[in-house]
Amino acid sequence: MSCLTDLPDECNAHILSLTSVSDVLRSSAVSKQLLSVCESDTVWEKLLPSDLDDILVQSSTPNLVQQFILKKNLFLHLCRFPVLLKTDTQSFSLNKQSGKKCYMIGARDLTIAWGDTPQYWSWKVVPESRFPETAVLQDVCWLDISGKFHVKFLSPNTTYGAYFVFKMDVNNHRGFDNTPMNVFISETDEHGLSRQCDIVVFKRFYLKAPTVRRRSRKPKELPTEREDGWMEVEMGRYHHIGVDEGAHEGMAVLMTLRQIDELHWKSGLVVQGIELRPLDGLMQ
Question: Concatenated DSSP letters for 71-97?
Answer without folding.
Answer: HHHHHHHHHHSPEEETTTTEEEEE-TT
